[in-house]
Amino acid sequence: MTDLTRLSAARLAETLAAGEASSVEVTRAHLDRIAAVDGDVHAFLHVNEDDALATAADVDARRAAGEELHALAGVPIAVKDVVVTKGMPSTAGSKILEGWIPPYDATLVEKLRAAGLPILGKTNMDEFAMGSSTEHSAYGDTHNPWDLDRIPGGSGGGSAAAVAAFEAPLAIGTDTGGSIRQPGAVTGTVGVKPTYGGVSRYGLIAMASSLDQAGPVTRTVLDSALLHELIGGHDPRDSTSIPEPLPPLVAAARQGALGDLSGLKVGVVTQLQGEGYQPGVLARFHESLELLTKAGAEVVEVSCPSFDYALAAYYLIMPAEASSNLAKFDGMRFGLRVEPTDGPVTAERVMAATRGAGFGDEVKRRVILGTYALSAGYYDAYYGSAQKVRTLIQRDFAAAFAQADVLVSPTAPTTAFKLGEKLDDPLAMYLNDVATIPANLAGVPGISVPNGLAASSEGGADLPTGFQILAPAKADDRLYRVGAALESALESTWGAPLLASAPELG
Ligand code: GLN
């Protein structure tokens, strides 16, 4: 029998529908794979074995009874630990939430459960989604399946590594500044940040509410479209949710896979290439552009001058919002509570002791930065200026989308770096997201498609690179059309999916 963990979600769905395997067998195969390799990869913080198998058995019984099921029914999935799951630990990678069991499900989790997707477990992440390497998790590092000494990207390194290591065919990530796309790029997986408001944020543990967006992490573009259609759409419990249906995403992916992009204009963003990008990353990027041209697209260069200030604006807006969102972790309501051992036990002193012990260094750094940027004397100089830059970036996008249907760039400037390499240098860490952050500031959707391998900066084995495609808000279908066209062109060049060449684990 074929190894069920090697199949895409779309192929698994067909296999289940044809009765060639049961969901219990598919789920069991993934749990066995987790048991075999997660000791090395550490993608999971919690494995939800019994509940996942119970869901699988239930789906099998319903299928046997002839019930009409969702296309992905019975296909297992992993969920980033920043998404709340009823009855299952949800720590957001932080000690401050250790032991907290949410009493409710996020809307997207409700949708997964209603459609019958067994939830394999919760994946590792940088604490409160702050980071680009998953090294800021309070629960240890996740390792890149391509090279266990390297980072899997972040903050959603656990979800990306789980999918790249064939521990899960599908995963959920969240992207505030790149945390779905950048891990996708460095692990050779597909990651999508939907249009802001396209997938409900109800039940996400918020980092920066105006930037956070949940989305799919998969091995193929079609799988992302299938998952995006399932989790997306209007949710009255999220006031920023778009009250409109999604554009047809699966249809766009299927059409794109036919490989005809004639009539499409692709804009290469001047500011998202060149200095700071590894030569191999740029070489793969230009090869991908050629493939798009061969598929009939017209490639033009567009300039977005305010993108040069995106990183600076992001690192004021994001900490400002995070400092407010994280104020609820006070030692009273959720998870950890630490009482001072010296002196009186007052509310303030419990809060200080709990936060001191429960938050890691990066979280403290950002809370301090955020409260400073919002303080009376500095608000206009920092937070106010950053919001103005945000408007300029939105205008740059509007002007660029008047010249091109989609914008493209490398997803991340470098291939996966070594664990520990950038841990003591916050600025170097922040620079990983130069190409992904503008989309969050403008609310537009983006996808990262694996587009080859390149030598790491210090040489050695080749590592995955990602190709980023951005579309106007609410035009997420364009990501799938262009992404699927690129994917099929690349795979016919390689003769197999990129991940087929990843080293064996276990
Ligand atoms: N790496 C960026 C940060 O540290 C983005 C994180 C994210 O998208 N959650 O903020």
Q: What is shown here, in short?
A:
Helices cover 39% and strands 12% of the residues. By secondary structure, it is of the alpha/beta class.
Structure, described:
Belongs to the amidase family. GatA subfamily. One of its GO terms (biological process) is translation. The active site is at 80 (charge relay system), 155 (charge relay system), 179 (acyl-ester intermediate). GO terms for molecular function: ATP binding; glutaminyl-tRNA synthase (glutamine-hydrolyzing) activity; transferase activity. It contains 16 helices and eleven strands. It is α/β, with parallel strands linked by helices and 506 residues long. The chain has one domain (4-306, 391-446, 467-494): Amidase signature (AS) domain (Amidase signature (AS) enzymes), CATH 3.90.1300.10. Helix 2 (23-41) packs antiparallel against helix 3 and helix 7 packs antiparallel against helix 16. The two termini are 20 Å apart. Residues 129-132, 155, 175-179, 207, 318, 433 line the site of glutamine. Glutamine (GLN) binds next to loops.
Derived structural class: alpha/beta
Largest sheet: 11 strands, mixed
Silhouette? globular
Radius of gyration: 22 Å
Q: Which stretches are low in confidence, meaning pLDDT under 50 for 5 or more residues running?
A: none
What is the level-2 CATH architecture name?
A: Alpha-Beta Complex
- The CATH class label is Alpha Beta
CATH topology: Amidase signature (AS) enzymes
Strand tally is 11
Distance between the termini: 20 Å
Q: How many helix segments? A: 16
Work out the strand percent: 5-15%
Helix content: 25-40%
Q: Averaging pLDDT over every residue, what do you get?
A: 97
Question: What would you give as the CATH superfamily?
Answer: Amidase signature (AS) domain
What is the N-to-C succession of helices and strands?
HHEHEHEHEHEEHHEHEHHHHEHHEEH
Number of structurally distinct domains: 1
Ligands in the model, by name, code or SMILES, are: glutamine
Which strand order spans the largest sheet, edge to edge or round the barrel? Answer: 1-3-2-4-6-5-10-11-9-7-8
Keywords: ATP-binding, Ligase, Nucleotide-binding, Protein biosynthesis, Transferase
Pfam family, one: Amidase
Catalytic activity: L-glutamyl-tRNA(Gln) + L-glutamine + ATP + H2O = L-glutaminyl-tRNA(Gln) + L-glutamate + ADP + phosphate + H(+)
Organism: Krasilnikoviella flava
